[in-house]
């Protein structure tokens, strides 16, 4: 579903991402981890078609993002760390707008369960200015899920959510993966990644340090120890790997 | 404590200047500073140095003014100032605030500073802003040589006016807050003020001497007569009493020479001191409202920097859908639907229809009144000027397009749409808004100008109808072309566009705006030359064979076709640019 081949992104002389390659299959959840400035957000933005890569090929659900961008974008949803909402559209109007952009017929039947799932149905006629940070995040997620994307990119999805919202979000990610979606999730919350991810990719200064299933990556950095958690793996991976 | 607060203000000002000076290293600011500096030099500074002679038109206007023009302007100015003061009591709906910023609230409100010291701090800060405003106004009034005085007296004169207005605003707001706390409702207060104003005007009219009453209260058809009648009223009690302090306040500005300036100072200073004491002593609890106001202001400025219009209110109430948006259909209309929701609620087809009906009825009514031709010609010419201004300046204000949504560009880029679809969708709302305004103005002109007494404007009915239809059809294309230029600027030079939306002006920002303005003028000239040149040629060729009306029709079709082609090409190019633009370099990383 997601195929990344030799992705690089340069800003002038600075290289944000260097020849990154990986794949995410249906039903897989890839956790993208790395220290600040590792290139996680840049990678996600390239994958979502927001910024063009400097080189490399990206295929989303079989479509080349460079040559078949529109077809590729119909299948994906991107959830930024900060909810990006229109100040003058209510919750319901946001969903109507997104439905038209993605051509979702009879969207009300899909929108209402989403609003209820994310507990914002009672705020449907409110503007973003009247919503809390967490509710805005939930609305942004509901908008992204409206067209039933098969590929989902989350950039710090739990920021601003309350404990119940976090639990529901995790369930939502897992259930969508179980339904066959390919998901890439960037977060500094390593316990979240441990709970929901099937695979992990560790980035440092734009380069891939390790990727694979959680067990495989753990085995590589556990040095024979048992029950090493992802936090320890992450610290060892980023400290041990020279640049 | 006040010294610490003044230190804050002084250092903030100093750092503001330093940052502006340092950013001149960037070409975009340096170019703006050069153009802005040149503008200031050629339009203002040279007149101080005596290098430049006043423009011939300005000189001709000045020499044609009547001898008693200064007292007349002073009287009109005092009336205007009195009207502003009345509005300060009539309009406010919000409780009093002193305009604290969010940072000032965060640092100063929990600090061991008395509320009175905070008030002093805000009032003194406001005086500095008044002085800056006075300096800018002086640059303009310095050219009004017939008033007398010099740059210094004008600056001080303006400062007295701005300062007093500022203090009166705060004083009125505090007093109104006290009244509200005592149970005086908004509409009761407004009714009371309107009754007071009405009574004052009624008593003034009643006090008019019989000879002047006949003149002053007679129906006036021309502007000179209206002004003359107003002047008679200003010299009659009790309006004369109300105007007395206002005229004392304006004394320094209208002082012809040094002796009259110094003579006017004591009264103006006394008025200012009284205002200051009034504000300090009438201040009520303002913390809660100040916090709320600062948050609103912060949100508004953040929205403006992101591309929303300056006067937009992010805390506005939700609005009903402008039309029903189905889930399927052209996605461009989703942008029209969305952006219509961001406009004023009065931009509806119903209001447009009612306006058109009002214009028609008004012109019909005016055409039957005495002195109709003169008034109608003024209205007609005014409407044409308005249409022209809307066409030229409108795109700077109607920003319900990609400029407004630039902050959401990352999300727009994830939509499964081509760049040209997003640009077209984004442009639809301002095109409709500006076209509607231009159409209304053209309707006004069409209803007014045919009734004028100028024989040279007499044209045949068929040509008039053809011309109106042609202009009406061309208008949307012309508006779209005008809108493409600032949108292109925002997409091709995003960092320049964002620079022009940073807070705090300066010559470099004015220069950047001038560069944008001239670039727009140049682009429009280049874009309009082919259709207009071709159209003129077609009229020249065909009018001998088919007559002027048919030639105009043929030329209009040609002009429209070329304009549509240019707009389509422009949208396609902008769409490609939107797809290319690397947001991570321009907006946020």
Structural commentary:
- The complex is a heterodimer of chains A (243) and B (589).
- Chain A has helices at 40-47, 69-75, 91-102, 108-117, 133-145, 163-178, 190-196, 214-221, 230-240, and strands spanning 2-11, 14-24, 29-33, 55-60, 63-64, 76-79, 151-155, 182-186, 199-204, 207-213.
- Chain A has 243 residues and is α/β, with parallel strands linked by helices.
- In chain A, the strands form two sheets. In chain A, strands 6-7-8-3-9-10 form a six-stranded mixed β-sheet, sandwiched between helices. A four-stranded antiparallel β-sheet of chain A has the order 2-1-4-5, with helices on one face.
- The mean pLDDT of chain A is 88.
- Chain B has 589 residues and is an all-alpha fold.
- Chain B has three domains: 1-52; 68-300, no CATH class; 320-586, no CATH class.
- Helices cover 76% and strands 0% of the residues of chain B.
- Chain B has helices at 2-22, 27-49, 56-63, 69-90, 102-108, 115-141, 151-181, 186-207, 210-216, 223-234, 239-254, 258-282, 287-305, 332-340, 349-368, 372-397, 409-414, 419-448, 461-492, 494-499, 507-546, 548-580, 583-586.
- In chain B, helix 18 (419-448) runs antiparallel to helix 22.
- At the A-B interface, helix 2, strand 6 and helix 3 of A face helix 14, helix 17 and helix 23 of B.
């Amino acid at each position: 579903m997601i195929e990344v081949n030799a992705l690089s992104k340069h800003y002038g002389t600075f290289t944000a991402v260097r020849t990154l390659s990986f794949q995410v299959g249906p039903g897989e959840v890839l956790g993208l981890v790395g220290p600040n400035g590792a290139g996680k957000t840049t990678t996600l933005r390239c994958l979502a078609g927001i910024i063009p890569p400097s080189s490399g090929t990206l295929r989303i659900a079989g479509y080349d993002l460079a040559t078949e961008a529109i077809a590729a974008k119909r299948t994906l949803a991107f959830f930024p760390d900060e909810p990006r909402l229109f100040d003058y559209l209510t919750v319901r109007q946001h969903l109507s707008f997104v439905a038209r952009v993605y051509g979702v017929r009879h969207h009300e039947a899909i929108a209402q369960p989403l609003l209820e799932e994310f507990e914002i149905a009672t705020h449907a006629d409110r503007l973003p200015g009247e919503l809390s940070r967490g509710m805005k995040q939930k609305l942004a997620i509901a908008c992204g899920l409206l067209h039933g994307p098969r590929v989902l990119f989350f950039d710090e999805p739990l920021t601003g959510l309350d404990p119940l919202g976090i639990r529901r979000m995790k369930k939502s990610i897992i259930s969508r993966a179980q339904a066959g979606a390919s998901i890439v999730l960037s977060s500094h919350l390593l316990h979240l990644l441990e709970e929901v991810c099937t695979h992990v990719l560790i980035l440092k200064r734009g380069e891939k340090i390790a990727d694979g299933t959680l067990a495989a990556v753990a085995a590589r950095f556990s040095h024979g120890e048992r029950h090493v958690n992802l936090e320890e793996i992450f610290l060892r991976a980023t400290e041990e790997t020279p640049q | 404590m006040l010294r610490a607060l003044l230190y804050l203000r002084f250092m903030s000002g100093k750092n503001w200047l330093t940052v502006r000076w340092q950013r001149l290293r960037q070409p975009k600011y340096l170019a703006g500073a050069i153009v802005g500096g040149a503008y200031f030099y050629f339009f203002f500074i040279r007149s101080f140095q005596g290098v430049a002679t006043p423009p011939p038109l300005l000189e001709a206007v000045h020499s044609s003014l009547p001898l008693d023009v200064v007292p007349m302007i002073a009287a009109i100015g005092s009336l205007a100032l009195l009207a502003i003061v009345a509005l300060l009591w009539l309009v406010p709906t919000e409780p009093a605030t002193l305009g604290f910023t969010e940072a000032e609230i965060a640092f100063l409100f929990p600090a061991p500073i008395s509320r009175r010291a905070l008030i002093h701090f805000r009032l003194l800060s406001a005086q500095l802003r008044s002085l800056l405003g006075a300096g800018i106004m002086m640059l303009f009034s310095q050219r009004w040589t017939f008033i007398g005085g010099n740059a210094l007296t004008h600056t001080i004169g303006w400062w007295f006016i701005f300062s007093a207005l500022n203090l009166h605003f705060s004083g009125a707001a505090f007093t109104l807050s006290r009244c509200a706390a005592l149970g005086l409702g908004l509409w009761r207060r407004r009714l009371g003020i309107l009754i007071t104003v009405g009574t004052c005007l009624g008593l003034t009219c009643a006090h008019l001497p019989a000879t002047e009453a006949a003149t002053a209260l007679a129906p006036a058809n021309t502007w000179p007569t209206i002004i003359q009648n107003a002047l008679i009223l200003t010299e009659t009690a009790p309006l004369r009493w109300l105007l007395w302090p206002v005229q004392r306040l304006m004394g320094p500005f209208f002082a012809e020479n040094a002796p009259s300036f110094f003579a006017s100072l004591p009264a103006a200073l006394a008025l200012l001191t009284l205002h200051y004491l009034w504000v300090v002593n009438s201040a009520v609890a303002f913390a809660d409202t100040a916090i709320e106001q600062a948050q609103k202001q912060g949100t508004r400025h953040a929205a403006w920097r992101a591309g929303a219009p300056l006067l937009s209110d992010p805390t506005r109430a939700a609005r009903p859908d402008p039309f029903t948006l189905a889930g399927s259909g052209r996605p461009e209309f989703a942008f029209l639907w969305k952006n219509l929701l961001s406009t004023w609620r009065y931009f509806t087809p119903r209001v447009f229809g009612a306006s058109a009906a009002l214009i028609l009825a008004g012109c019909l009514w005016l055409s039957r009144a005495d002195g109709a031709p003169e008034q109608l010609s003024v209205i007609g010419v005014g409407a044409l000027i308005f249409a022209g201004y809307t066409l030229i300046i409108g795109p700077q204000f109607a920003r319900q397009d990609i400029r407004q949504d630039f902050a959401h560009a990352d999300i727009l880029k994830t939509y499964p749409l081509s760049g040209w679809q997003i640009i077209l969708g984004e442009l639809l709302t301002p095109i409709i808004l500006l076209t509607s305004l231009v159409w209304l103005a053209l309707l006004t002109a069409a209803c007014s100008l045919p009734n004028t007494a100028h024989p040279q404007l007499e044209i045949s009915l068929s040509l008039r109808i053809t011309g109106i239809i042609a202009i009406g059809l061309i208008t949307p294309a012309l508006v779209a072309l005008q809108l493409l230029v600032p949108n292109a600027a925002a997409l091709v030079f995003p960092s320049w566009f964002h620079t022009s939306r940073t807070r705090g002006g300066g010559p470099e920002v004015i220069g950047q705006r001038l560069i944008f303005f001239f670039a727009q003028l140049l682009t429009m000239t280049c874009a309009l030359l082919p259709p207009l040149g071709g159209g003129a040629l077609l009229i020249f060729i065909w009018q001998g064979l088919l007559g002027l009306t048919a030639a105009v029709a043929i030329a209009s079709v040609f002009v429209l076709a070329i304009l549509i082609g240019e707009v389509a090409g422009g949208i396609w190019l902008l769409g490609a640019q939107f797809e290319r633009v690397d947001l991570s370099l321009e907006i946020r990383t």
